[in-house]
Design brief:
The complex is a heterodimer of chains A (327) and B (528).
Chain A: H1 2-8, E1 20-25, H2 29-43, E2 46-51, H3 54-64, E3 72-75, H4 78-86, H5 95-98, E4 112-125, E5 150-152, H6 157-170, H7 172-184, E6 188-189, H8 193-202, E7 207-211, H9 213-221, E8 227-230, E9 241-248, H10 255-265, H11 268-278, H12 296-302, H13 314-323
Parallel strand pairs in A: 1-2, 1-3, 5-6, 5-7
Antiparallel strand pairs in A: 3-9, 4-7, 4-8, 4-9
Chain B: H1 2-11, H2 17-41, H3 46-53, H4 56-89, H5 95-103, H6 110-120, H7 126-131, H8 140-166, H9 169-177, H10 182-193, H11 195-211, H12 214-219, H13 224-234, H14 238-263, H15 288-316, H16 326-357, H17 361-375, H18 378-392, H19 400-425, H20 428-436, H21 441-449, H22 454-470, H23 473-478, H24 486-495, H25 499-527
């Protein structure tokens, strides 16, 4: 019993003397751990990372309020960053950091910056789909020839961002109708993109609405993975560039370290790493994007015009998903 | 003072205060999340809450949830009962290994089992690629049922096993001597005595299925817990999720009441000495082959399949660099899971004790309340504890202590069943005898009852340890910053489609759980 009490008493007290930085990361460990370790070595700053879903961590931040131990919040999508921003928990970032990025890659009030980008694509089976028949618009997927053949992930943050963008472009009524038509056309729901792409390869579906980088990751271990991907026509609502981003909390105790980390993430070498290793797009101009086939600028042109802050209006989107019976 | 308290307790025939106090404390702790959910749920205006509660979709979720829960019970029983009998009563060779095989599927995270089954079937599946046999791809009800049954049957199995091992053999001997055939002995004498164990296992499986998220989400079968997860994962609005969680709690409370009614009036302890008498081993005879086939198929599906899937992932792209973070993750997992297993088992003793030895509305109620911690959706449980610790004991926030407490309280329900089963079999006479010799109640308990309960306690600790090793949502929200368990790593890599990087972590969960369970059973085997 005494041993038990001893085990229970000591918590993990942060080491006050050493320089440290506490990150809440909605980006999964798989994508960021090497960068974090590299920063730790180069700058001698101890990194404490809490990983979780972007939304869950945003909720945790809201629940913790001023008492949060986090210095920075690194999220997978604009929606989660927007939620923290709207609760006035983010500090405004210095101009010299913001000016490193094109204007559309930080929010207008300058409380968070994008660290990498990703594109929405239509992935399809190479053996069961005739590319000539692929629709040029995401609205073409409600056609009866695609009945039961399309997969999507309604609970996924990236998909919801896409829906938000579609809403802003076409209006809520059109999107609600589209959701209902898709459901009526027997679209198959998946919990995440990896599971969906496996189902696509396994023949459960023939088309999947997903992010661009999953295919590259599957190809890494299985070069013959029987899937290809493409964009919709220029300017179609189904194309969207979404970003992962990072913001610093007002209550942060280690602001210098936090800013150093943000600057580190925008260094060319590290931006290049993101493209080559996890197949996302660099946010700096002039990087090689060979690993991901298409230059980021081309994709930004394909995608409809949007302000990143707009993507954080998630509540209406969720409401539509519930009304369509998808959540 | 102490004597006076003890006197009052005796006068009103209450359980001893040193059993009752911890039980009441546990009950209060477990109720914290419930308060939190109520607070959140009542934030909605009445009209909105009505809309949220009376949705047609909820009815469908209810139907799916119940269908899956009862389906899993049926399949689980069909697997666990024969296996328990074979491994305790028959002369099949390798019973120890088989016993281990009956426990280990518990160590496999639900989503890994689902990925394994999914990767096995379908056009691009292992069966199709390696053997040219294209199995229909599992999904929906069949998929969820197969996956969940394959890793939850051990709950029933272990309950059955400790009950069968601890049954008083004299009853069976007596009935045989009265001319019953072996099958009659089993169905008319043995089976009825297994009821407390069956109810305990059933309850856990039922509650587990109601809360499972990993397998149902990958198999795309929509249940309450799936819907709750989607709400929490997708939205910042915690109101709808709170309503769904409360609805789920109503469902689980019903299950708890039903189990209570079924359990009432069951006493199956031995009347004679507390020392165990060896039960007779029955020769399988011509039943040997069906038994072999049954056991082989079971082990192939529930253990070999997921393990070879993990190994397959690992071989796809193995890189020694991946092993770097492994040791840290293992330390983190064990540092949280092992104390949680011990604590949960320790807390289960007073709860089960007062429920069994002082059956009354109060004690039974307390025992049931402890199950509510298990029934509360883990994400809601974690958010509630954040809310509570920050407002009441901020010093606890983001400590290992809080994580261990949360694990112990959440998984307490898994520990109660086996402890209770063991208590039913330990005769109260022994304790009374010890007390008549002048020992106090507590001392009498530790001298007379505790040693008899050992195998039950081992099972409890094993349950909680393995569940904590693969736990995700609570770990995400309550672990100290920088504290990443093995399970968190597995989840993180699989969600990013980096299966080969996930594999070593999943493998270590399995290896370590095997080691832990092996160690626990080895103690039991050597002490026999």
């Amino acid at each position: 019993m005494g041993v038990l009490l001893l085990l229970l008493l000591p918590g993990h007290l942060p080491d006050a003397a050493a320089q440290s930085l506490t990150i809440y990361s909605g980006r999964s460990k798989a994508l960021v751990e090497p960068l974090i370790r590299k920063f730790e070595q180069e700058h001698g700053i101890r990194m404490n990372v809490r990983y979780g879903g972007s939304t869950q961590l945003a909720v945790a931040l809201l629940e913790e309020g001023r008492r949060t131990p986090a210095d920075v919040f690194w999220a997978q999508d604009a929606g989660a960053l927007g939620a923290v921003h709207r609760n006035a928990m983010f500090e405004t970032l210095p101009r010299e950091l913001l000016s490193q990025l094109p204007e559309q890659l930080h929010n207008s009030e300058g409380t968070w910056i994008a660290t990498s980008g990703r594109a929405r694509v239509m992935a399809y089976s190479t053996s069961r789909v005739d590319t000539a028949l692929l629709p040029g618009s995401i609205f073409g997927l409600t056609d009866s020839q695609w009945s039961g053949r399309v997969g999507w992930a309604p609970s996924n943050g990236s998909f919801q961002s896409l829906l938000t963008a579609m809403r802003l472009q076409k209006g809520d009524d059109v999107i609600l109708q589209w959701l209902r038509d898709m459901r009526g056309n027997n679209a198959q729901s998946y919990i995440n993109n990896s599971a969906m792409l496996q189902a696509l390869a396994a023949g459960e579906i023939d088309i999947a609405l997903t992010n661009h980088y999953y295919l590259f990751r599957f190809r890494e271990t299985d070069p013959g993975f029987p899937v290809e991907q493409t964009f919709f026509a220029h300017g179609d609502a189904g194309n969207l560039v979404n970003v992962a981003g990072i913001g610093m909390l007002k209550t942060a105790g280690n602001k210098d370290e936090a800013l150093a980390f943000m600057k580190f993430l925008l260094e060319e070498e590290n931006q290049q790493w993101v493209t080559q290793e996890v197949y996302e797009y660099p946010v700096l101009e002039g990087m090689s994007t060979q690993a991901v086939d298409t230059p980021f600028r081309d994709i930004q042109e394909l995608s409809p015009d949007l302000d990143l802050d707009d993507l954080s209006d998630l509540n209406r989107t969720l409401d539509l998903l519930r009304r369509a019976g998808l959540l | 003072m102490l004597q006076k308290v003890t006197y009052i307790f005796r006068k009103y025939n209450l359980p001893s205060w040193y059993f009752l106090t911890p039980a009441v404390l546990v009950g209060l702790f477990v109720l914290i999340p419930l308060f939190y959910l109520l607070v959140r749920a009542l934030e909605a205006d009445t009209q909105l809450s009505m809309e949220l509660v009376f949705r047609y979709r909820n009815l469908r979720l209810l139907y799916n949830t119940l269908l899956l829960a009862f389906g899993t019970l049926v399949v689980g029983t069909l697997i666990a009962l024969p296996l328990a009998w074979i491994t305790t009563r028959s002369d099949i060779p390798g019973r120890k290994i088989l016993t281990l095989m009956g426990v280990l599927p518990l160590a496999i995270p639900g989503y890994v089992m689902a990925y394994a089954l999914l990767g096995f079937t379908g056009a691009n599946g292992t069966m199709a690629l390696v053997f040219g046999l294209e199995l229909p791809r599992l999904s929906g009800f069949t998929g969820a049922l197969t996956a969940i049954s394959l890793y939850t049957f051990p709950y029933l199995y272990l309950n059955f096993r400790s009950a069968l091992a601890g049954l008083d053999p004299s009853l069976e001997e007596a009935s045989r001597s009265l001319g019953y055939r072996p099958a009659e002995v089993f169905f008319r004498v043995t089976l009825p005595q297994l009821r407390p164990a069956y109810y305990a296992g059933t309850l856990i499986i039922f509650l587990y299925v109601l809360g499972d998220f990993g397998a149902v989400s990958l198999m795309r079968f929509e249940t309450f817990s799936y819907a709750i997860y989607l709400q929490y994962a997708a939205s910042y609005d915690r109101v709808y999720a709170a309503w769904l969680a409360l609805m789920l709690l109503v469902l689980t409370s019903t299950a708890l009441v039903v189990e209570y009614k079924l359990l009432r009036g069951l006493f199956f302890h031995r009347i004679g000495s507390g020392s165990e008498k060896k039960t007779a081993i029955i020769s399988l005879g011509h039943w040997k082959w069906p038994a072999y086939i049954f056991v082989t198929v079971l082990v192939l599906l529930s253990f070999v399949l997921p393990v070879s899937t993990i190994l397959f992932w690992m071989m796809q792209a193995f890189d020694t660099q991946q092993l770097a973070g492994l040791q840290r993750a293992l330390t983190a997992s064990v540092m949280a899971s092992a104390p949680a297993a011990v604590l949960a088992t320790a807390l289960a003793i007073p709860l089960a004790y007062i429920g069994v030895r002082h059956p009354s509305r109060l004690t039974r109620g307390l025992e049931r309340v402890a199950y509510l911690g298990y029934a509360t959706p883990p994400l809601a449980f974690a958010l509630a504890l954040i809310f509570f610790t920050l407002n009441a004991v901020p010093i606890l926030y983001q400590t290992l202590t809080l994580l261990i407490l949360a694990y112990a309280l959440h998984f307490l329900a898994e520990a109660i069943g086996p402890v209770r089963t063991a208590l039913y079999q330990a005769s109260p006479r022994l304790e009374e005898a010890a007390r008549s010799l002048g020992y106090g109640r507590l001392k009498a308990f530790f001298l007379a009852t505790f040693p008899v309960m050992r195998s039950g306690l081992i099972v409890s600790a094993a349950f909680v340890f393995m569940s904590a090793m693969k736990e995700l949502p609570i770990t995400f929200l309550l672990a100290p910053v920088g504290f990443q368990t093995l399970a968190v790593n597995v989840w993180s890599y699989t969600a990013e489609a980096m299966f080969s990087q996930a594999a070593p972590y999943a493998l270590v969960i399995l290896l370590f759980s095997t080691l832990f369970v092996g160690l626990l059973f080895a103690r039991e085997w050597t002490s026999r």
